[in-house]
Amino acid sequence: MTIDPSWISGSGLGSADAFLTGRPPVKGCRVALLGFDGVGQAVVRNLCERRNAGIRLAQIYNAEGSPRPSWIPTEIAWTTDPRTIDLSDFDIVVDLAGDQDRSREWIRSALEAGKSVVTASKHVMARHGPDLLALARARGCQLRFEAVVGGSVPMVSGLRDGLAGDRLRSLVGILTGADNYILTRIEWTGGTFEEAVAEAQRLGLIGDNPADDVEGHDAAAKLSVICGIAFGRQIVFEEVPRQSMAAIEAIDFQYAARLDCTIRPIAYAERRSGGLSAWVGPALVPRASMLAHLHGSQNLLITTGEATTRTGFFGVGAGSRAIAVAVVSDLLALVSDGPRHPSRMPVPTRAHVVTAETDIRRYVRFVVHDRPGIIAELAAAFAAERIGIESVLQEPTLRRNELVFVMTLDPCPQPALDRAVVAIEACDFHIRPPLALRMLDPAVG
Ligand SMILES: NC(=O)c1ccc[n+]([C@@H]2O[C@H](COP(=O)([O-])OP(=O)(O)OC[C@H]3O[C@@H](n4cnc5c(N)ncnc54)[C@H](OP(=O)(O)O)[C@@H]3O)[C@@H](O)[C@H]2O)c1
User: Fold this and answer.
1) 353 is a domain residue
2) DSSP letter string, 110-126
């Protein structure tokens, strides 16, 4: 990044307009930026690099006690005192604070005052998106949230504008770059889940508490938001069935390879009568699918529509600089429209998740103390729920005291599988609980 030092010092310019919009100074939209950590800093640095953008960053507000960094131009006001912030004083408010409750309050009060907002908060949009979008529409301003899903990949505008002419049926994707990094690292290094998480933390892909990512909360929030755009129906994200990645081991990639698959963190949704079927979690994907070729923190969304069959959105899905691109793109769109331009974003209705996963095969991995009769007991438990066994796989091993093998199952209803797994878990031969994963059909991804 190159920043003209005279801009930083402000020498010869005398105003934030000049700093951010080039010479000669032009009048720009007054912007307040709330929250100044990784993404906030990347946004300010990005803005520092552009001229004549019509964006006038007037104020940064950060958590109490945080010192003003020396590189911020003097023309930009800096405050950590919430009493000094009056959101009605700005044309656009950018919410980049990690605090959901505060973010929602700020967004609501800015929209109430008729000010357009750009936010990166997936949890606020997943929980309150429809209400906030309705408020923006009622107040004749805009709420933009490209950064919420897909990192720098324009999934929100791509679906809203680019595919508005189609009727979408389903979407499948990898929406969580950190999760994809963790799984691909286990695959490549043969290491443990814990080692992969530690490495993702070291790289700054996830924070101190990885549960949001690895337990699927993040993916469910993003899926909920993207469903609102793709289907006009935003699912209640707490209802999205989630599966943790924590039980995945390197051996699962070996068995997946025998099935000509690999394992990726998948988010899936499709229209069903009565609602949307949706789930998030690690799943086997065929090696030939585009999803299998995503490595590290990349994101991919594939939509299937009535006219467009398959359309893909692919790119960098994580990291402050990538997220900043989405935020700044939203800002530029607002400036181009004029911040008082009414929202064109359709307001989604809320939809419940219907569980209808009857058409997906399963992979179930067992780690057991070997003894005669295990396969017969498992077959009986599955047969009791009318679940057909498709295949049994076992890598050659001499370790009878910790035997690993896999069964693949015919498509079956989720409740039947859940009941069978509960019955199987009660058996005395397990060393570790069985791990059941979905197997995506080659036609899906
Ligand atoms: N990082 C990513 O890759 C990514 C990806 C997609 C979306 N996002 C979203 O982008 C936003 C910003 O991300 P980030 O990684 O920069 O978040 P972050 O590390 O949580 O930083 C948020 C900043 O806001 C400040 N803040 C939090 N609550 C505040 C409050 N009540 N009043 C004033 N300041 C407050 C924090 O200060 P303290 O540190 O002192 O609390 C921190 O400086 C979040 O909504 C996040 O979910 C991030």
Assistant:
1) no
2) HHHTT-EEEE--HHHHH
Assigned domain for 348 exists = no
Minimal CA–CA distance to 20: which of 68, 92, 128? 92
The two tokens of residue 251 are: 């051996």
How far is the C-alpha of 269 from the C-alpha of 183, rounded, in Å?
Answer: 21
pLDDT in tens, 402-430: 999 999 999 999 899 999 999 999 999 99
Which conformational region is residue 364 in: left (phi greater than 0), alpha (psi within -120 to 50 degrees), or beta? beta
Tell me if 349 is assigned to some domain.
no
Q: How many CB atoms lie within 10 A of CB 422?
A: 10
pLDDT in tens, 69-88: 999 999 999 999 988 888 98
Please list every protein residue whose CB sits less than 6 Å from any atom of ligand 1. Answer: 35-40, 62-63, 66, 96-99, 102, 120-122, 147, 318-320, 323
Helix (H, G, I), strand (E, B) or coil at 291: helix
Of 258, 289, 222, residue with least CA distance to 363: 258
With the most atoms of ligand 1 within 8 angstroms of its CB, the residue from 96, 107, 149 to mutate is: 96
The separation between the first and the last C-alpha atoms of the chain, rounded to the nearest angstrom, is: 37
* pTM assigned to the model: 0.91
Asked whether residue 266 falls in the same domain as residue 373, the answer is: no
